[in-house]
Amino acid sequence: MNPTSDSQKNPFASGAVSVFRFGAKGDGRTLDTGAIQAAVDAAHEGGGGTVVVPSGAFVTGSIFLKDNVTLFLDPGAVLLASRDPRDFPVVRGRWEGLTREIRAAIIYAAGAKRIAVVGRGTIDGRGEEWWGRYRRKELDYPRPRTVQLEDCENVLLEGFSVRDSPSWTINPVRSRGVVVRGLDIRNHPDSPTTDGVNPDSCEAVRIADCFISVGDDCVTLKSGVEAEPAELRPPCRDIAIVNCVMERGHGGVVLGSETSGGVSDVVISNCVFKGTDRGIRMKSRRGRGGTIERVRVSNIVMRDVLCPFTMNLRYHCGGAQGNALVADRGAAPVGPGTPAIRNVSFSSITAVGARLAAAWLDGLPESPIQDVSFSDVSVSMDGDDAPAPAEMADGIPALSRAGFHATDVTGLGLHDVRVAGARGESFVLDGSVSLRP
User: Fold this and answer.
1) E strand or H helix at 133, and its extent?
2) Could you give the residue ranges of the DSSP H alpha helices within 33-82?
3) How many Cβ atoms sit within 10 Å of the Cβ of residue 418?
C-alpha cells in the first residue's frame, strides 16, 4: 500500500488551490460560502497557503480568514454578497466606536496573523438590500462591512475592487501592520455610511495608490468612543496615506469623530480630492476626549470641495445635537472628556472651486486648537451655491464663499496663504486667535 502523499494530506503542499476543488460552483446562483470557507480552513490547518477564487461569480456570506492564508481573487472573479442576512453570522465587534453584536463582514478575521486578500477580482457587496433595510429601520444588528479585521497583525489588502459595500468598506480594528494598496472602491454616492477605509485604534497602517469614491468619508481615522473600555480603544497612530485619489463623499481624509483613544503621527501626502464635502477634516466634542496630534498634510490638490479645511471640537456626534455642554461658547472645566487638537501642519496645497469657506477652525476656550500652520496654501472660491454651515455644530452660521475662519486657536501660522474669490474678508480671526510669527 502506497503511503499517503503530501498533496493528499495537504492540498496546499504543492501550491495555490482553487475553491473549485472544494466544491464551489461560481455560477452566480449557488451559495458558495461553505466551499470557500473549507478551502480557507484547509490552508490554515496545513500551515498556510493561497486560496484561489478563479473567474466566475461566487455568491457568499461571511468568510472567516485565518492565520497564514491568502485569498487570491483572479481577474474576472467576483465575490457576490448574499442577500440573506442569515449568511452573515452575529459576532462581537466594533461598530461606531463601541463593541457590540454586529453582522460579520463579507471578509472577516479576528486575531489573525499574516493574512491577505489580493488579486484583480471584485467584491460586490450588493449593498442596495442593506441600505434599504437601514433606511426602513428593519435591521436587527448593524450591517456587514466588506472587510473587517479585529486584532489582526501583518495584513495585506491589494489590487482588488469593491462595489456597493453594505456599510463601511475596509475596517481594521486594533490591528497592526496593515497595508491597503491599489484598491478601487466605488460605493453609490447616496449610500448611507459606506466609508472607504476606516482604521480604528490601529498602528502602522499604510494606505497607498487607492481610488475611493463613496457615500460617506473616503478615509477616516478613529479610536473608539468614551463608553468603550480604555483597553479596547488604544490610539490610532503611525498612519501614512499617500498617492490616493478620493472622490465625492463627506470628507477626503477625516480624523474622528471617534477620538477617545487619540489619533497621532499621521502623514497625508500626494493626494487628489474631487467633489468631497470637506477636504481634511478633524472633529470631536466635549465628553469624547482624546487628542489629535502630530499630523502632516502636504502636496494635496482639491477640486470642488465645499470646505477644504475643518477642525471642529463642537461636532454633532453621538447624539450631541442640541447638547448645551457641547454647544456652549463659554469655557468648561477640563477633564478626561476634554478633546484636543495640536501640532498640525498643512503645506503645498491647492484648492479650487471651494464653495462654503476656505477653512473653518473652531476650538474650545478651555482647549484651543494649538500650533497649526498653513504654508504655501492657495484656496479659490467659486459658485453661488445655497449657503450652508461649514461644519456640523450648533450656532454655526450658513456660509457661502466665506474666507478663512478661526476661533479659539493658539499658535496659528499663516505663511504664503492665499484666498481668492471670497465674499467679504479673506481672513476672519477673532480675539481668541493668536498668530505664530
Assistant:
1) helix 128-135
2) 33-45
3) 12
Per-residue pLDDT tens digits for 87-125: 999 999 999 999 999 999 999 999 999 999 999 999 999
| Strand arrangement, sheet containing 402-407 | 219-221, 251-255, 278-283, 307-312, 357-362, 402-407, 427-429
At 39, phi and psi to the nearest 5?
A: -65, -45
The pLDDT mean for the chain works out to 96
Closest CA to 329 of 272, 400, 404, 396: 396
Is residue 77 within 8 Å of residue 118, measured between CB atoms? no
What's the CATH class of domain 15-435? mainly beta
Sign of CA dihedral 119, 121, 122, 123: negative
Q: What is the pTM of this model?
A: 0.96
The CA distance from 422 to 356, in Å, is 9
- SS3 at position 272: strand
Q: Considering only CA atoms, which of 247, 258, 102 is closest in space to residue 189? A: 247
Q: Give every CB contact of residue 339 below 8 A, 6+ residues apart in sequence.
A: 259, 284, 285, 286, 288, 289, 290, 291, 292, 313, 364, 367
For residue 42, how far is the Cα from the chain centroid?
32
- pLDDT over 90 at 383, yes or no: no
Q: Identify the helix (H) or strand (E) that includes residue 135.
A: helix 128-135
DSSP, collapsed to helix, strand or coil, labels residue 35 as: helix
Q: Indicate left, alpha or beta for 419 from its phi (over 0: left) and psi (-120 to 50: alpha).
A: beta
Among 16, 34, 20, 45, smallest CA distance to 119 is for 16
- Separation between Cα atoms, residue 242 and residue 239, nearest integer Å: 10
C-alpha cell at 2: 502506497
Instruction: Give the integer Cα–Cα distance in Å for 105 and 227.
Output: 23
Beta strands 388-389 and 398-399 are antiparallel
Torsion over CA: 322, 326, 331, 335 (sign): positive
> Mapping DSSP to helix (H, G, I), strand (E, B) and coil, where does residue 385 land?
coil
CA of residue 44 relative to chain centroid, distance: 29
Residue spans of the domains in the chain: they are 15-435
Which are the contacts of 196, defined by CB distance < 8 A and separation ≥ 6? 169, 170, 185, 187, 210, 212, 214, 217, 218, 219, 246, 249
Res 2: pLDDT? 47
